[in-house]
Amino acid sequence: FKESNGSTDSYAATSQVDRLQSEPESIRKWREEQKERLEQLDANSRKQEAEWKEKAIKELEEWYARQDEKLQKTKATNRVADEAFYKQPFADMIGYVAAEEAFVNDAEDIFPGTEWERVAQLCDFNPKSSKQAKDVSRMRSVLISLKQAPLVR
């Protein structure tokens, strides 16, 4: 048999009954109304949360449908553009961006010994303007030396 100095469950139950009996009627009534009000608020919040979840699921499905539709339109447009592009003459040679088109146009003026000059046009040889993390100074010096003294075949 174990003795306890603290309160037991039976003691807590009797003290609560004593407290409720000694409590005025207005406070007891307010407590009951408050409990009902809180239960009603909880039920409303659960209902509202369920409605929000349903609305969110519906909006998400609509968004996915719109995204899929956009993707399908983009794919179709790209396919048509690719077909039109590859039907052009010399399509395998036209795949350059606008900045490189001038370089391709200058390709007709190829003379022996000008290859490295054309490569140098594409390279940035200013060491201060390069914002790269890698050190490319050796490559830069190799390209400059090849520009000045091209290799002989």
UniProtKB/TrEMBL annotation:
Signal peptide: none annotated. Its main location: membrane. GO terms for biological process: clathrin-dependent endocytosis; intracellular protein transport. One of its GO terms (cellular component) is synaptic vesicle membrane. Keywords: Coated pit, Cytoplasmic vesicle, Membrane. Pfam families: Clathrin_lg_ch (PF01086). GO terms for molecular function: clathrin heavy chain binding; structural molecule activity. It comes from the Eukaryota. It is found in: Cytoplasmic vesicle membrane; Membrane, Coated pit. Residues 1-28 are annotated as: Disordered. It is a peripheral membrane protein. InterPro entries: Clathrin_L-chain. Residues 1-19 have a biased composition (Polar residues). PANTHER family: CLATHRIN LIGHT CHAIN, CLATHRIN LIGHT CHAIN A. Clathrin is the major protein of the polyhedral coat of coated pits and vesicles. Belongs to the clathrin light chain family. This is Clathrin light chain. It comes from Cariama cristata.
